[in-house]
């Protein structure tokens, strides 16, 4: 439905889960996909192969997106091998352990901040000059419904995701005049590889609380990201869009 032909999309954490689904949706819309991964090269290669089998363009790029030097190298490598990124999707995440306040350390908060505040900041700093010169850019953060729900034993994650939403809104105001949109997609709990061993009872209990009575899939998130990356979304910026079957209605 949306045509991203000629655009280059950089997706962090694209080797599995939501990231893989986002990469495949963007590729189906015609974008050249730069799939960033941290260490799982085989999983990244599998996603790239799936995209190429459908006749689209994709390439995998390793980098720790919380490291300034590696982020700059990532951006340079994508530029040299594909093109200057027009679309950036900040999806990479860290381990998300449930911990009570008593069990938490400040390092737990710093780890979350590194992924949800530092990494988008480093990417934006590297790419902003080119986006401003072109008068065009799409920057999409992957947030979470937890900001509205306020899950217990999860305050380190919830706090960082809340800060990511604030970052999105401020950047949107600052960059709108340059043709750069900044939005956030807030998924609900979507089953992916890292939750494969969770008990079925947990999935059933969550689904029972969702108005649509089910969980989503990575392609649901990929579809929203693709829309926000498209020309059809050129007048949408600074928004948090929940993709969670109505679980928060916000």
Protein topology:
Elements: E1 8-11, H1 17-28, E2 32-37, H2 41-53, E3 58-62, H3 68-81, E4 87-90, H4 106-134, E5 137-142, H5 146-149, H6 155-175, E6 180-187, H7 200-209, H8 218-229, E7 240-243
Parallel strand pairs: 1-2, 1-4, 2-3, 4-5, 5-6, 6-7
Walk me through the structure:
By secondary structure, the protein is of the alpha/beta class. Helix content is 46%, strand content 15%. The chain contains 8 helices and 7 strands, in the order E-H-E-H-E-H-E-H-E-H-H-E-H-H-E. The protein has a 7-stranded parallel beta sheet, with helices on both faces. It is globular. The mean pLDDT is 95.
Terminus-to-terminus distance:
25 Å
CATH topology type: Rossmann fold
Number of helices: 8
Percent of residues in helices comes to 40-55%
Q: What is the ordering of alpha helices and beta strands?
A: EHEHEHEHEHHEHHE
Which structural class do the helices and strands define? alpha/beta
Percentage of residues in DSSP E strands = 5-15%
Structural descriptors:
single chain, 250 residues, alpha/beta, Rossmann fold, seven-stranded parallel beta sheet, 8 helices
Can you describe this structure in just a few lines?
The protein has 250 residues and is of the alpha/beta class. The chain has eight helices and seven strands; from the N terminus they run βαβαβαβαβααβααβ.
């Amino acid at each position: 439905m949306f045509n991203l032909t000629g655009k280059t999309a950089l997706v962090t954490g694209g080797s599995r889960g939501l990231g893989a689904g986002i990469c495949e949706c963007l590729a189906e819309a015609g974008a050249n996909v730069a799939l960033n991964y941290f260490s799982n090269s085989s999983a990244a290669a599998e996603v790239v192969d799936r995209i190429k089998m459908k006749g689209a363009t994709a390439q995998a790029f390793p980098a720790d997106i919380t490291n300034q030097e590696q982020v700059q190298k990532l951006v340079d490598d994508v530029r040299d091998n594909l093109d200057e990124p027009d679309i950036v999707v900040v999806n990479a995440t860290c381990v998300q352990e449930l911990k009570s306040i008593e069990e938490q350390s400040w390092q737990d908060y710093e780890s979350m901040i590194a992924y949800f505040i530092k990494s988008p900041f480093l990417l934006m700093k590297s790419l902003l000059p080119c986006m401003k010169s072109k008068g065009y850019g799409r920057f999409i953060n992957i947030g979470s419904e937890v900001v509205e729900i306020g899950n217990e034993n999860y305050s380190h994650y919830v706090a960082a995701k809340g800060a990511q939403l604030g970052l999105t809104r401020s950047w949107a105001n600052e960059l709108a005049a340059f043709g750069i949109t900044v939005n956030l997609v807030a998924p609900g709990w979507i089953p992916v590889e890292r939750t494969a061993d969770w008990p079925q009872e947990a999935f059933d209990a969550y689904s029972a609380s969702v108005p649509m009575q089910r969980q989503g899939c990575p392609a649901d998130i990929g579809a929203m990201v693709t829309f926000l990356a498209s020309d059809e979304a050129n007048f949408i910026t600074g928004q948090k869009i929940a993709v969670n079957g109505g679980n928060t209605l916000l």
